[in-house]
Amino acid sequence: MLSRLTRPRALAVCALPVVALLATAVLAPLPFSLAQPGMTANVLGENKGEAVITVTGAPTRRTTGQLRMTTIEATGPDAHVSLGDVLDGWFRTDQAVMPRDSVYPSGDNVKEIERHNADEMKESQDEATKAALAYLGRSASDVHVTLRLADVGGPSAGLLFTLGIIDKLDGDGSGGDLTGGRTVAGTGTIDARGRVGAVGGVGLKTQAARRDGATVFLVPKDECSDATAELPEGLRLVPVTTLKGAVSALVALEKGKGPVPSC
Prior knowledge:
By secondary structure, the protein is an alpha/beta fold. The protein has a domain at 37-73 and 117-255: Ribosomal Protein S5, domain 2 (2-Layer Sandwich). The chain is 38% helix and 21% strand. It has helices spanning 7-27, 83-90, 100-103, 110-136, 158-169, 202-211, 224-229, 243-255, and strands at 32-42, 46-47, 50-51, 53-56, 66-74, 96-99, 144-147, 183-186, 189-190, 196-197, 216-220, 236-240. The strands form 4 sheets. It has a 6-stranded mixed beta sheet. It has a two-stranded antiparallel sheet with strand order 2-3. A hairpin with a 5-residue loop joins β9 and β10 (196-197). α4 (110-136) runs parallel beside α5 (158-169). The longest helix has 27 residues, at 110-136. The radius of gyration is 24 Å and the shape is globular. The N and C termini lie far apart (74 Å).
């Protein structure tokens, strides 16, 4: 036997599936990661009690200023990110919503991801050493470089590692520091030929850099628009595409003459 529903009751019954669907959408996990500014480390100094750059087989310089590599911190691959989290992240300047696959391209297994990131860091360090020694005309058979950076993975510190090696061995090439005594930060991959590559997350990295005292930020040129979107006050962007260009820009800043590119 069927009974006739009043209009208010009928609307209420019809609304229940919609409410349930909306609640499910809000609470269901989504394939995104939430990222925020992470730690930075001065590659010319120490990190967790260990020198980041150690050189044997050649004299090194006492440097001033800092070269700070930058990072982002992201929710883990198995973290529950809901629609509410995503909407909140879109409206915040200190947080970014990123596709999980772009943050963790190697999958969802935490140990595999850690291995993948460690492998990328090791390759980045090897390429940085090759690029620096090639730039200086030094032989790897005579100069040995060890790079240590605990709890950091991925390739994005390559450019800063390379500049740090150059500053420790040669400075600006005429007795001065490559940094000019400033706190310089940046990001970017590098290959053995000195080509700088994009990395992602630069908007958050500029915030981390300014938070930790940087006034200059080296950014892969292709990421200028991302870097300028939420640029912290007091931070100067210097776009680079090659190691040679990065060194030339820093020397021009240090000496106060010559062209310094800008985004």
